[in-house]
Amino acid sequence: MRAAQAKKTPPPGEQLLSLLLPLVESFARARPPNVLILLADDLGVGDLEAYSASALVPTPAISALSAAGVRFTDAHAHPICSPSRYSLLSGNYVFRGRRPSSSWGLSGGSQLLPGQRTIAESFRAAGYATLLLGKAGIGGEVAALPDELRRSTEDDRVDWLLRRGRRLADGPAQWGFDESLSMVSGIQSPPYAWFNGSVASLPRGSRCWGTATHATRTGDWVSGKFAGTGLRHRRYTPCGAGDGHDGAADWEGHMADAHLSQAALGFFDRRRRARGPQPPFFALVATAAVHAPFTPPDRFRDADIRTWVATSEVAAPRRLHVPHSSMVAELDAVVGALMAALRSAGELNETIVVFASDNGGLSCATKQHGSWRPSPETPAPPFEDVSPERSGLQSPLCGANSSAHLRGHKGDLYEGGHRVPLLVAWPAGGVPAGGECGDLVGLTDLYATLLDLAGLAPPAPGQAADSVSFKRRLLRPRDGHPARSDLLVPSPPSWALRWSRWKLISLAHGSQRATELFDLEADPGETTNLLPPHNVSGQPPRASGEAASRHEATAARMAQRADQILGRGVSWAFL
Question: What are the residue boundaries of the Sulfatase N-terminal domain, all occurrences included (predicted)?
Answer without folding.
Answer: 33-455
